[in-house]
Amino acid sequence: MDPALRKTLAVGALLVLGGGGTALLASSSERPADTTVPLEKAPPSGADDRSLDAEMNRLRSSTNGVERIAALRAAARIGTPESVRWLASLAEEDPAIGHHAATALRGIANVGAAGALLDLGTAPGSLSVRANAIRGLSRFASPDHVGRLSALLADATEPQRLRQEAALALGRAGGAEAERGLLQWLEEPRVEGDEALRLAVIEALSRFQSGGSKEALRSVSEESTTSGRERAFALRALEPRGEEGHQ
């Protein structure tokens, strides 16, 4: 890949996903392995050695920061709907550990908690909690979740960060309805300051192999109003993705 294009992609990915965005940037031959947990390999409820009650007690009884964060991560590995609700309540109510509790929602490792994550991400509340819940959901996103994710993406009153996570989750979910929601948003008039959201939509569309998505990405790459970062992302998205993409 051309070094200048790669640098442009790197800056754009930081806008989309923060420090974790660079995983989007490798060329098709360099792309790192997808670390999303396959549904059939996701640990079942209670698979961790410790029960959720034990982790709750560990956090309450310890003043050691490392130990408390370890309890949050263990709760995410247990990954029940109750784990989701407990982490969310800590994120909202405990200033000392709230940021770490919200971040732990990304690591929920049980597909059985997908509904709880979707409920959390689409309900009023802390932006950090909602965005991390949708990012956690993206590990298990399926066509069943597409309607509410599409509504979240389309709602201009929602924070842009949350809509970015919804777009990326739609890319993970796949299916004609998810693709349609992404394409419809891309056709909307541009709004000042929406570049990061457009980058997320472009990245999500790169997972689809249909002619409609390819044509939309090609149009983005050729439009005179397209920013340099958007053009770079669109060109990157047009590269073959092999077995990663949705048919």
- How many domains? The number is 2
Task: Spell the H/E element sequence.
Answer: HHHHHHHHHHHHH
Inertia-based shape: elongated
CATH architecture of the largest domain: Alpha Horseshoe
Q: List the uncertain runs.
A: 19-49
Describe this structure in words.
- The protein has 247 residues and is mainly α.
- It has two domains: 48-140, Alpha Horseshoe (Leucine-rich Repeat Variant); 145-239, Leucine-rich Repeat Variant.
- Helix content is 59%, strand content 0%.
- The chain contains 13 helices and no strands.
- The chain has helices at 3-17, 52-61, 65-78, 81-93, 98-104, 114-122, 127-137, 146-154, 160-173, 176-186, 195-205, 211-222, 228-237.
- The longest helix has 15 residues, at 3-17.
- The chain is elongated.
- The protein starts with a helix and ends in a 10-residue tail after the last helix.
- The model is unreliable at 19-49 (pLDDT under 50).
